[in-house]
Amino acid sequence: MSHPAHPMVLLVDDHRAVREAMAQLLEENGMTIGGQASGLKEALVLLDTLRPDLVLVDLLPGDEGLRLVADLNNQGVPVVVCSSHQEPEYTRRALDAGARAYVAKGDAARTLPRILKDVLDGWVLISPRAAE
Q1: What is the pTM of this model?
Q2: pLDDT digit string, tens, across residues 103-120
Q3: Alpha-carbon distance 129 to 9, whole Å?
């Protein structure tokens, strides 16, 4: 399986500065940002019009991120969780909900573009910091 030359990504994070930094990082690595959302409701509205190749999701307050991961997984949309939570419980819950990768935000600048491309190629991954 190979990924599109310029995969379209939907970014979902409750911090605007994080979304903007990730958008810049991904665009510099050949990806297209189809949209940005700050929470579950906004993401669902965007998903009605977008057909992203992948969704990058923060865990978000109140388990909204995990609900979004499960919903997207049921729709067959690949999801990568990128979170500041490094406890094994969060990684396990995200993967159980259907995330195809879990990236610690501390690893994102170094590993995120490669992980997203690998997920689009069919891999399930955990970044080194999250795996610890």
Answers
A1: 0.92
A2: 989 888 888 999 999 999
A3: 23
